[in-house]
Design a protein that fits this description.
Radius of gyration of chain A: 18 Å
Largest sheet of chain A: 6 strands, mixed
Structural class of chain B: alpha/beta
Structural class of chain A: alpha/beta
Number of helices of chain B: 11
Oligomer: heterodimer
CATH superfamily of chain A: P-loop containing nucleotide triphosphate hydrolases
Helix content of chain A: 40-55%
Strand content of chain B: 25-35%
Radius of gyration of chain B: 22 Å
Distance between the termini of chain A: 28 Å
Largest interface: A-B, 32 and 27 residues
Strand order of the largest sheet of chain A: 6-9-10-3-11-12
Number of domains of chain B: 1
CATH topology of chain A: Rossmann fold
Helix content of chain B: 10-25%
CATH architecture of chain A: 3-Layer(aba) Sandwich
Number of domains of chain A: 1
Number of strands of chain A: 12
Chain lengths: 264, 480
């Protein structure tokens, strides 16, 4: 694996995906290089979340055509766990509760799976405890959350911090945060944003899926993409997000064919 | 994704206890009648009171009909086509382990229950029952130092007839139900435990039941008595070879807890469940009941039921003594074409009695898994309390789960709380774990053992991790 800045981390070509015969992604093209932060915006139902799940390998979606390459390798045949171990991380919009499974045990098993893929030594319970306590500071989480069941009874903000904690432990090459900002108050948003910023390095890349400008005030993206009807309809710099905040999506939708050409 | 292993594939793990021990067996002729019962009783050199007990039970049984209210379907059983007694041939009753046929010792060792002197489990005394007879009981002498009696029920009948006569059939009367009556008539062997006043049993007691013959019914009988201020923890394990015919197992277990005593009874049931098409397997019709006779006495049942083609089993507590406590913690896992109708009865007789029921049913494949439970508050059960929680998890879309809670209360000052839930092993939860690099099988077993956590926490330490592994094995290949 190469880790110099500027390598192509993710390459998506003409990706079509559907769920239960309903086509959702209709030709997505995207290239992400190391060191970049991309924001993906768009209305509900435009395919943003689907794109993130498809990259992570959710089994409910079928890929009808196109390709996804991660670190120059086609990943469409990889299981979700193989993608995770290879360094793709999806921060869930609605992190799931797993009753009866202790959070720290879950975090340790996940961390060791990733470490194994990185050919690093597995951590025993004591070593892991040291590591996790250090990472907790990053998201300002109380250690008592480690002993509880995974996400069970956590508030919305606590769940999102737990996601960032996982990201900190797994050290992904590509972090995809699906509406991590939704439902957060301003303090929680800052904590999450600071966490994400500290985790981005020049050999990693981040995709932020969001509805709101306020996350992008905290984390400055290199590119902003707008999805319309299963495609990336428009791409711009950080100022595009501001324009969307002011004028909404209508102007893009009206002109979506034209903007698609512009993107190239 | 197409290459994702389906849960169905994961659940189909071969049964590893399905071997048959090639040993010469003494069997009596097929069928059941008074002569057969007399024959069993005389083979076991039983006192007269026991023969009478058996014959009375047989008379009752003849008048009874097989119950059909459970959510179970199976072809009629021909009770005249079964053999009611089978024993590995040994010339004489063995006094020491050295004299036991090494083939039998090997069998138990293969099952992970070494009983020979050098290999036996530290701090767990084992009574090993093979078909109709008890082969050996370990640590007897050490237990005797504390006054604890742990032996086969046949031995107890000869050595302690007064205890047997006093207690046998007092918790489960001979006419209690069809299968209990049948058991009372023909029971062969099982374990007997007596904990004297003021003694905390110094080690775990455990019985291991092995069915070896294909055409023999197994009718074991277990009796546990905890005298005042005593305590004991007892565990039973069960396996059987793979036959393509069905074998009948109809056991009766009676527990008696006197003042301030505690009995903890745990079961890991892994009888052969039949193959993927539902051919073969054990019919498991069991009556288990404990009576908290004394003040502040406590009986706690924990069970992990993973085997048998059919399970019909309701370990219950009669809470007679004031402030006595009954508990039932159960995990029942069914796969392929297994059927389980299991639960408990908490009969609150005395004042301030308390009971807790936690039941976790997991159904995979085409299986049927029902919880059936009764909470009964009698007229004197003032300020009695019950809490029940019944959760079902469905794996795949062909399995079914039912919950039948029955509540009777004749006491306005009693409180009953019931919670129930059903969930599907959710693809999204699996995906969440997988996306963190955790592989599919491990994700399934994490979720299932998380679901069962409350029950596993109740098992004796040595067995909790084993139960965890057993469930994971049973589920291999079942999610999809």
């Amino acid at each position: 694996m190469q880790n110099s800045s500027g390598n192509l981390i993710l390459e998506i070509n003409d990706l079509h995906a559907s769920i239960e015969d309903q086509s959702i992604l209709k030709g997505v093209n995207l290239k992400i290089y190391a060191g970049e932060i991309h924001a993906i915006m768009g209305r509900n139902g435009s395919g943003k979340s689907t794109l993130s799940k498809v990259i992570a390998g959710h089994p409910a979606y079928s890929i009808t055509s196109g390709i996804i390459k991660f670190n120059n390798q086609n990943i469409l045949d990889l299981e979700p766990e193989e993608r995770g171990r290879a360094g793709i991380f999806l921060g869930f919009q609605y992190p799931l509760e797993i009753p009866g499974v202790s959070n720290i045990e879950f975090l340790r098993v996940a961390t060791n799976a990733r470490r194994q893929a990185l050919k690093k030594e597995e951590l025993d319970t004591f070593e892991f405890e040291d590591l996790v306590h250090e990472k907790l500071k990053l998201v300002q989480m109380d250690p008592s959350f480690l002993e509880r069941s995974v996400n069970e009874g956590f508030s919305g903000g606590e769940k999102k911090r737990n996601e960032i904690l996982q990201m900190a432990l797994l050290e992904p090459t590509l972090g995809i945060l699906d509406e991590t900002d939704s439902g957060l108050d301003i303090d929680a948003l800052r904590i999450v944003a600071t966490g994400v910023q500290k985790l981005s390095k020049n050999d990693t890349a981040t995709i932020l899926i969001t509805h709101y400008q306020r996350l992008l005030n905290e984390i400055t993206p290199n590119f902003v993409h707008v999805m319309v009807d299963g495609k990336i309809a428009h791409t711009g710099g950080k100022e595009l997000a501001l324009k969307l905040e002011e004028s909404g999506y209508d102007w893009i939708e009206k002109d979506s064919n034209k903007s698609e050409e512009l993107k190239k | 994704m197409s290459s994702t292993q389906t849960v169905d594939e994961i659940v189909s793990q071969p049964y590893k206890y399905g071997f048959v021990t090639d040993i010469e067996t003494e069997k009596i002729p097929k069928g059941i009648n008074k002569d057969i019962i007399k024959l069993i009783s005389s083979k076991k050199e039983e006192p007269d009171f026991l023969l009478k007990f058996r014959l009375r039970a047989f008379d009752q049984w003849l008048k009874m009909a097989e119950p059909n209210w459970a959510e179970l379907g199976y072809p009629p059983i021909n009770y005249q086509d079964l053999i009611y007694f089978a024993a590995p041939k040994q010339e004489q009753k063995k006094e020491s382990l050295e004299e036991v046929d090494p083939k039998l010792l090997d069998t138990f060792e293969k099952l992970g229950i070494p009983i020979s002197e050098q290999k036996r489990l530290a701090n767990v005394a084992v009574d090993a029952v093979f078909d109709s007879v008890s082969i050996a009981t370990t640590y007897k002498e050490k237990l005797a130092e504390h006054g604890v009696i742990f032996c086969s029920i046949s031995e107890a009948v000869t050595k302690y007839p007064e205890l047997i006569e006093k207690y046998l059939g007092t918790v489960v009367p001979i006419n209690d139900n069809f299968f209990a009556a049948l058991n009372s008539a023909v029971f062969s062997d099982g374990s007997f435990v007596y904990i004297p006043k003021g003694v905390d049993c110094p080690m775990e007691l455990s019985s291991y039941f092995r069915i070896n013959s294909g055409d023999t019914g197994q009718f074991e009988r277990t009796l546990i008595i905890a005298e005042e201020k005593s305590s004991v923890s007892y565990l039973e394990g069960c396996t059987a070879p793979m036959f393509d015919t069905n074998t009948l197992h109809a056991a009766v277990v009676e527990l008696i807890a006197l003042d301030y005593s505690t009995i903890k009874y745990s079961t890991v049931q892994n009888w052969y469940a039949g193959n993927e098409e539902g051919i073969g397997g054990i019919y498991n019709f069991v009556t288990k009941r404990g009576q908290c006779r004394g003040k502040k006495s406590k009986i706690s049942w924990s069970q992990v039921e993973t085997g048998s083609a059919i399970t019909w089993k309701y370990p219950s507590c009669i809470l007679q003594g004031e402030e006595s406590i009954g508990e039932f913690y159960s995990v029942a896992l069914t796969n392929n074409y297994q059927q389980a109708d299991t639960g408990t009865k908490m009969i609150h007789v005395g004042a301030k009695t308390r009971s807790t029921i936690v039941s976790k049913g997991i159904s995979a494949g085409h299986s049927k898994n029902s919880y059936r439970g009764l909470v009964d508050m009698g007229p004197n059960a003032i300020n009695a309390k019950n809490y029940s929680q019944c959760d079902s998890m469905l794996i795949g879309d062909k399995a079914s789960a039912n919950t039948f809670p029955y509540i009777h209360s004749q006491q306005p000052k009693a409180s009953i709380e019931h919670e129930a839930s059903t969930c599907r092993l959710a693809e999204d939860q699996l995906f969440y774990l997988q996306s963190r690099g955790i592989n599919f099988e491990e994700a399934v077993s994490m979720m299932v053992s998380g679901f069962c956590r409350d029950v596993f926490n109740q098992l004796p330490m040595e067995f909790a991790s084993e139960a965890d592994k057993l469930l994971a094995l049973k589920l291999e290949g079942s999610v999809g």
